[in-house]
Every structure is written in C-alpha cells, then in structure tokens.
Amino acid sequence: MHGEKSEAEDVGVALSDVPPMRDLAFSILSLLVDAAASHMRVEIAGVVPSTHTEGPASGSSMREARAAIDAANAMLSAVREVMEMDALRAIESMLTQVQIEYVRQAGRST
C-alpha cells in the first residue's frame, strides 16, 4: 500500500543488513560456550581463555554454566540444518569439551 512502511523500515533496519542465520547461530553458540567455560573458570580449545582461571567454580557459577550449556544445546538442535559443516563441527567440539568439564567439576563438588 502506498505510504505505509514495512516493519523493517520502521526500526531502521534493511533486510540486507541482517546477517545470514548460519553466521548469527555460530556467533551466539560461540558466546554461549565461552560463557559456560568462563563461569567454570576453564580454558577450552577454540574458546578465548577466561580471565578468571584460578580456583574451582562456585555453585552459582556452575548454575550459570549449566544454563549456558543447556541454551547452546537447544539452539544447536534448532539451527543445525542451516550451519556449514566446518562451523557445526567446531561448535560441537567446543560444546562437548565444556560439557565434559562441567561433569568433571560437578563430580568434584558432590
């Protein structure tokens, strides 16, 4: 209709400015894995090291790590089909490492 703006125009975002879902998914998944590793105070290959790597993670930090891991797993299952194979393998590898570390630390605290 003449004179009406689309929703994208209303918020000032052109559709060409929105990155492809595969790129957004990789970025968000990387951030979630990094958050989990940081909360557990561990370094994971492929993840920027946390600045707080001394000592075991606290109970609240482990809850934060678990939330990040769960969110990453849920998102990964939702976006798996749109991701490129190399990116998918990288995320799966980092997520597996952080999950193993979570189990290791959770086992120590019980």
Folded structure, characterized:
The chain has four helices and no strands. The protein is an all-alpha fold. The protein has one domain. It is elongated and about 50 Å long. It starts with 6 loop residues before the first helix and ends with a helix.
* Number of domains as seen in the coordinates: 1
Strand content: under 5%
- The shape, in one word, is elongated
Q: What is the helix/strand order? A: HHHH
The Cα radius of gyration reads 18 Å
Portion of residues within helices: 55-70%
Low-confidence stretches: none
Helix-strand category: mainly alpha
Record field, number of beta strands: 0
- How would a textbook summarize the main sheet? none
Distance between the termini: 64 Å
The residue-averaged pLDDT reads 84
Alpha plus pi helix count: 4
Describe this structure in a few short sentences:
The chain is mainly α and 110 residues long.
Give structural attributes:
mainly alpha, 110 residues, single chain
Q: What order do the helices and strands come in, and which of them pair?
A:
Blueprint: H1 7-10, H2 21-40, H3 59-79, H4 85-109
Helix pairs in contact: 2-3, 2-4, 3-4
